[in-house]
Each structure stands twice: as C-alpha cells, then as structure tokens.
Specification:
InterPro entries: Protohaem_IX_farnesylTrfase, UbiA_prenyltransferase, UbiA_prenylTrfase_CS, UbiA_sf. This protein is mainly α. The protein is built from 16 helices and no strands. 48% of the residues are buried.
Length: 312
C-alpha cells in the first residue's frame, strides 16, 4: 500500500488509444530526450576521465548503447506510470496519456531497446559495461519506477542511483572495471539528485498529491523537505569539490566548483529560510533551475580539463 492513497480519478475517464498511430516524435518523446542528453554527457565525461582509451568508433558505439539504454528506461517508466502521468500537469501530454501510443507499444519499444543496447554494448565494447547497463535499466524501471516511487518518500534518494550510474558505465566501457574516481562521479550525481528533485517537488507538490505519489513534501511536509534540501546540499558541495584534492581535477575546477557550490548553498539556504508565499515558490524554482546548470558546469569543467591534459 502506498503511503499516499491513489485517487479514484486514476481509473475514471479512460484514455482512448489508437494502436500504430504514434509518430516518430512520439517515440522520441518516450525516450525522455532531456534526460538522455544528461546521461550521454556524463557518460562521455566518465569515458574521457578513465585511464586508457577506446577507438573512436568503439567509443561512439558505447555512447550510443548507453543513450539507447537510458531511453529504454524512460520508455518503460512511461509505460508503467501512464496512470499517474495523465493526472499530473507536468506529464499529461506524454505520448501514452495523450492516447498517441498504446501501453503495449511502449512496453515492446522499451524492452526491445533495453535488450538491444545491453547486447550491443557487451558484444562490441565489454560485458562488464553491458552488465552494468542492464543493472541500471533494471534499477530504474523496476526498483525505482515499480517499487520505490509509489511506496516511499525516499524514492528519489534511492532511485536517484539509476541516474548517477552513467559516468561509471562510461568509465567501465574504457577500463572494464570501476574505481574511486568513477565512484566519486557517481556520488556527485547521487547527492545532487535529492535537492534537485525536491526543489521541483516543492512547487509541483499538488501534482504529486493528486497522483498519489509519496514525494517528501506530500508525506513529510514542505518544512521537512526544505531541511532535507539544505542537509543534502551541505554534503553535496564538498563532495563536488573533492575531485581536486583527490587529484583527478585541477585547480581551475577546484576554484570554479567552490564558487558554484557557494551559489548552490546560498539558494538552498533561501529555500530553507523562505517558507510561505510567492517568494518561497520562486526560491524553489531558482534552486531547481540552478541545480541543472551546476551539475552541467561541474562535468563540463572535468571534461575540459581532461581534454587539455590529453592534448599536452
């Protein structure tokens, strides 16, 4: 039983689907292209930071497989979550609740891409990376989507691991193993995910409440969520700086990561301090927006320094 009762509207007003009517754009939307772009980018950074190298064609195949695997996870997520997607304003226009693609079509699409991406990565790159990708797809589609998302307010904390695995898979594609550096990359994204999504949940809490999803603001309240955002941010910022003292990032990264971290903490503090009205909502929106830029710039700096090092 979910911690939040699922509303009766979830079974009323059924969607009318027309099989075989989905366009190419509808199937692309199933892949969650925005999420896929972040996956490709962070996986590429993991590949570039890893010791050793891959032939450019093999590296391209690895990135393609990781991207397809991420898209497959998104399709399976939309297949399973179609009932709640049609209730939330943020997701109501997705292809399945909009009636453009049937659940069976989405399931077949997601499963085909899942199997194909894992087999291709295993055969053409290495089987450790292939197995890692298979585990990631399973973790997101089954552990997070089917179990955690509707059963615990810690869904984002635990389930966020799925989104943090890509740089490790990229690293594993080059080395056939993982290391401390790849674990640090994982932990940065893992600790970034809760304040990022909880900031979103603060100004979209009514959506989650109506859909019966036990996000932290719905179950524990907005004040508790603000506290958790601040606590996770306090852990995230020094962790994000750690590649510098650990020796796999340079002083430019260290200085910029420190400045970005100060900005992140400042916005997290505003979210914690402002509790009511439009100012509180704007603070949450600003943290959510900045968090995307924050993560991108961290990994872009790591990538830039790696490219400079390789050219020297």
């Amino acid at each position: 039983m979910s911690l939040v009762e699922r509303p009766d509207t979830m079974i009323d007003d059924p969607v009318t689907w027309q099989g075989g009517m989905g366009s190419v754009g509808d199937y692309v939307a199933l892949l969650k292209p925005r999420v896929m772009s972040l996956v490709i980018f962070t996986a590429f950074v993991g590949m570039m930071l890893a010791p050793g190298s891959l032939h450019p064609v093999v590296a391209g195949v690895a990135l393609l497989c990781i991207a397809i695997g991420a898209g497959a996870s998104g399709a399976l997520n939309m297949w399973y979550d179609a009932d709640i997607d049609r209730i939330m304003s943020r997701t109501a226009k997705r292809p399945i609740p909009a009636g453009k693609i049937t659940p069976d079509e989405a399931l077949a699409f997601g499963m085909t891409l899942s199997i194909g991406s894992v087999v291709m990565l295993g055969l053409l790159v290495n089987w450790f990376a292939g197995a890692f990708l298979a585990f990631t797809i399973f973790f997101y589609a089954v552990i997070y989507t089917m179990w955690l998302k509707r059963s615990t307010p810690q869904n984002i904390v635990i389930g966020g691991a799925a989104g943090a695995f890509p740089p490790m898979i990229g690293w594993a594609s080059v080395t056939g193993s993982v290391s401390l550096e790849s674990v640090i990359l994982f932990l940065i994204i893992f600790m970034w995910t809760p304040p990022h999504f909880w900031a979103l949940a603060l100004f979209k809490s009514n959506d989650y409440r109506q859909a019966g999803v036990p996000m932290l603001p719905v179950v524990a309240g907005e004040d508790a969520t603000r506290t958790q955002i601040l606590l996770y941010s306090l852990v995230l910022v020094p962790l994000a700086i750690s590649p510098w003292p650990l020796g796999f990032a340079g002083p430019v990264y260290g200085v910029v990561a420190t400045a970005l971290g100060a900005g992140f903490l400042g916005l997290a503090w505003r979210v914690y301090r402002l509790r009511e009205g439009d100012a509180a909502r704007k603070a949450a929106v600003r943290l959510f927006s900045f968090s995307i830029l924050y993560l991108f710039l961290l990994f872009a700096l790591l990538l830039g320094e790696s490219l400079v090092t390789r050219m020297m």
